[in-house]
Amino acid sequence: MSKRILIIGATSAIAEAAARQWAARGDALFLVGRKRQKLDDIAADLKVRGAANAGVFEMDATDVAAHAAMLDAAIAGLGGLDVALIAHGTLPDQKACEASVTMTLAEIDNNGLSVVALCTLLGNHFEAQGSGSIAVISSVAGDRGRQSNYVYGAAKGMVTRFLQGLRNRLAKKNVQVLTIKPGFVDTPMTAAFSKGALWAQPADVARGIVAAIDKGRDEVYLPGFWRLIMLVIRHIPEFVFKKLSL
Amino acid sequence: MGVRGAATAWGRLDWPAASAELPFGDRRAALPPVEGSLLAYGNGRSYGDVGLNPGGTLLKMRGLDRFIAFDADSGVLTCEAGVLLADILALVVPRGWFLAVTPGTRFVTVGGAIANDVHGKNHHAAGSFGDHLLSFELLRSDGARLICSREGNSDWFAATIGGLGLTGVVTQATIRLRRIRGTAMGVHNWRYTGLDEFFALNAAAEQAHEYAVAWIDCLAKTPRGVLMAADHGEGDLPAPHGAKRVPVTPPLSLVNGLSLRAFNAAYYGKSWPAESRQHYLPYFYPLDAIHDWNRIYGKPGFYQYQCVVPPAAARDAIGEMLDAIASSGQGSFLAVLKNFGDRPTPGLLSFPMPGTTLALDFPNHGASTLALFERLDAIVRAAGGRLYAAKDARMPGDFFRAAYPQWQDFSRFVDPKFSSGFWRRVMEQA
What pTM does this model have? Predict the structure, then answer.
């Protein structure tokens, strides 16, 4: 049966790759992002690929006051809502954040608080509906704070914890809450990094997301080997960990 | 959408690197300001330096992979230039459409197919890729965006088809597809011995079938091979699943006199049903089922030599080339023989012309391989033929300029910021 899917941060590479897979099976999509032109281009592509519908909505996710109107528009555009994928985010310049409280808080706002706000709204909607899936792209970076990107890690850690609680609450209401923890993904967001064997392609990560939603999973590491890597990382004692250059 | 990995050419010869490789993922964006020259790079399936720009900048186009419009009633498709033909097939085949022209691999971009005006097994019936191209947008380094078609900017249209990426960047294109009634192909095979029999069988096959191509065993004393003709059939067959991969590059070529003789004898001798039905994938793209097959030639890489010779000289010239190859002791694993049709080519520098095309792969043995190519060049030149730039890594500049006299007219359309390893080589520019 075709699904009605809201994608926030729809111009991100992983979200676009997931949207293509949904489009190919005829799902209806509603795309939210900051760049109108890019949203329109992606919507046209998804319609060609078979999407039953591909509406667009221009919004900055940190504009919390706009969230309710966005959700109303999505529900109206799709004729209801089955799945919400939250995929927006930025990769902060850790060094620059250390020198700027404003930048640090802005990154926490974008990668953490805006997601908490959206999940609150979506959680209430799906709870009242008695069905639905909330899938959120968190990160392996949220599993432990590291010197190289702890601002990002703190925001993603907040998202991961928030989703744990939300899942606990909504599990009784037939609502899926999925935490997605990608490792390194070869996207425009990470264009500046040199890529090694641990790097995954957006289409592969997207396949994992689509499958995890279909299967009603709670938490996925993508690719799966990150579960093992993070198990090790999480269990290194702090007195050792603090001396590492991670 | 990934942009990982340094640009390479399919022949795996040792080319100097580009000074920079920049992703180009937004068709509405301006070209990046760079020092030196630019060239668009698609999926790296050209064999030599036609898609490389040693010392200059490559714009990696695979990020431009969005569809723009598709009319399932008329079969007209518009997409960005980095879309692979494989992506188009995945989209349109279930809706009853097929590429009007496809080369022997589906892992090429639309931009690359235009830049090399690629052809397929139906050239005698359908012409080349450019014949089914309705329009495209050409982005020039001065920021101009030219919408090119047979009706508007037709001179730019003709220059860019087969224009080797030198006229600017194609950002998006509109192509016309052809109807099919299923994934099945009706395939006919004939063994032949001697070139006369090939030409006779092939002439008849071209009359009756949309697709026709022949494999040739170039090590046999008397040339022999198998002519394969086909048409789209009715109904669906299951797609073969699971591609294999050549996992590593051996230090030496696995293709050598011994393995080749054994392969050719076995291939010729295997059962060739006179008539069969086959899914379109193994028919059109047998090698796409083996990822990285180019690694079998080992670390030194390989050359492909593809020429076309005009009809009057074809029989004798092909015979002379086969003799030259046999006496050189260097055999070709993948030797393909095909007749081109008579239709005028759509591009100024398009490769196809009326006549017969012979395509051969040779492991890179250095000087001895290059010496063989000089002998083959002499035969092709005397016959009034030419070589295919998309496959070339070594043709002399004077041969290119003599065989493609339109190059002078074409030069007017070359973007001043654009160049390639191939172009500097055949123009003998530093």
Answer: 0.93
